[in-house]
């Protein structure tokens, strides 16, 4: 029988390379050692600082930008911005409304905020504004629109769930909030509330020129 001398194994020492036992970390016998956990990599938004600076510059010029979907959390942030600007000075605030949709409760909240501000608020619409968001526009002391603006008078889509009593109470609440929007629009346009209500039911769409004739915005275009 032939025995081969294998360097590095017990019983067959290598004169040039001493044998070193392998290290087995504590754990279950017979299980391979686990690799240490790799650190989690967090990617930082490269535009975060730029967006914050842009927001700061707009507020310094008393310009508040509202776009997308206006829900209750966004309404709280917008309320804080408007109240802060109003406390700082009595100069006009420009409210830019861009492609705006809104939850009914958020609009009613902001309409109440706009009613107590001392500084005049000038609303300007670009893109499409629809549904209850028109109540936010109506609450502005001065209303204008860019030539590309469209105004969609449409009822909000709501879903109810629960007991018959809870559904009835919720429906009555929605009706009251809608009436708040309808009466404000009737006030600024000089049109009967029932006409406003019917236009919302039919989903009437107005161009910027038609919105001027409707009494929804003023004749001058763009912000001042």
Textual characterization of the structure:
- This protein is α/β, with parallel strands linked by helices and 224 residues long.
- Helix content is 41%, strand content 17%.
- The protein has one domain (50-214): 2-enoyl-CoA Hydratase, Chain A, domain 1 (Alpha-Beta Complex).
- Strands 1, 2, 3, 4, 5 and 6 form a 6-stranded mixed beta sheet that branches.
- α3 (104-116) links the parallel β2 (93-102) and β3 (121-130).
- α5 packs across α6.
- It is globular, with a radius of gyration of 33 Å.
- The protein starts with 47 loop residues before the first helix and ends in a 10-residue tail after the last helix.
- Mean pLDDT is 80; it is low at 1-9.
Fold topology:
Elements: H1 48-60, E1 63-70, H2 72-88, E2 93-102, H3 104-116, E3 121-130, H4 133-138, E4 142-145, E5 150-152, H5 164-189, H6 193-202, E6 205-207, H7 208-214
Parallel strand pairs: 1-2, 2-3, 3-4, 3-5
Antiparallel strand pairs: 5-6
Helix pairs in contact: 2-3, 3-5, 5-6
Gyration radius, in Å: 33 Å
Query: Which percent range fits the helix content?
Result: 40-55%
- Principal-axes geometry comes out as globular
**Would you tell me the structural class of the helices and strands?**
alpha/beta
CATH architecture classification name? Alpha-Beta Complex
Identify low-pLDDT runs. Answer: 1-9
- In CATH, the homologous superfamily goes by the name 2-enoyl-CoA Hydratase, Chain A, domain 1
CATH topology (fold) name: 2-enoyl-CoA Hydratase, Chain A, domain 1
Level-1 CATH class name: Alpha Beta
The structural domain count equals 1
In total, the number of strands is 6
Report the biggest beta sheet as strand number plus sense, adding barrel if it closes: 6 strands, mixed
Mean pLDDT: 80
Q: How much β-strand is present in the residues?
A: 15-25%
Secondary-structure element series: HEHEHEHEEHHEH
Enumerate how many helices there are, as a single number.
Answer: 7
Distance between the termini: 103 Å
């Amino acid at each position: 029988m032939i025995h081969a001398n294998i360097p590095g194994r017990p019983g067959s020492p290598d004169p040039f390379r001493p044998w070193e036992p392998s290290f087995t970390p504590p754990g279950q016998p017979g299980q391979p050692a686990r690799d240490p956990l790799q650190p989690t990599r967090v990617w930082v938004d490269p535009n975060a600082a730029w967006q914050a600076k842009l927001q700061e510059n707009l507020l310094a010029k008393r310009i508040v930008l509202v776009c997308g979907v206006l829900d209750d959390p966004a309404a709280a942030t917008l309320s804080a911005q408007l109240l802060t600007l109003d406390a700082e000075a009595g100069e006009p605030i420009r409210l830019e409304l861009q492609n705006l949709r809104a939850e009914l409760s958020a609009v009613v909240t902001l309409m109440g905020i706009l009613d107590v501000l001392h500084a005049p608020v000038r609303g300007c619409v670009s893109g499409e504004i629809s549904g209850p968001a028109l109540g936010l526009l109506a609450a502005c002391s001065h209303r204008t629109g860019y030539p590309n603006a469209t105004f969609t008078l449409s009822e909000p889509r709501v879903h109810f769930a629960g007991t018959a009593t809870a559904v009835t109470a919720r429906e009555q609440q929605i009706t009251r909030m809608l009436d708040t929007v309808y009466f404000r629009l009737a006030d600024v346009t000089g049109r009967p509330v029932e006409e406003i209500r019917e236009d919302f039911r039919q989903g009437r769409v107005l161009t910027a020129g038609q919105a001027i004739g409707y009494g929804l915005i003023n004749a001058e275009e763009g912000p001042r």
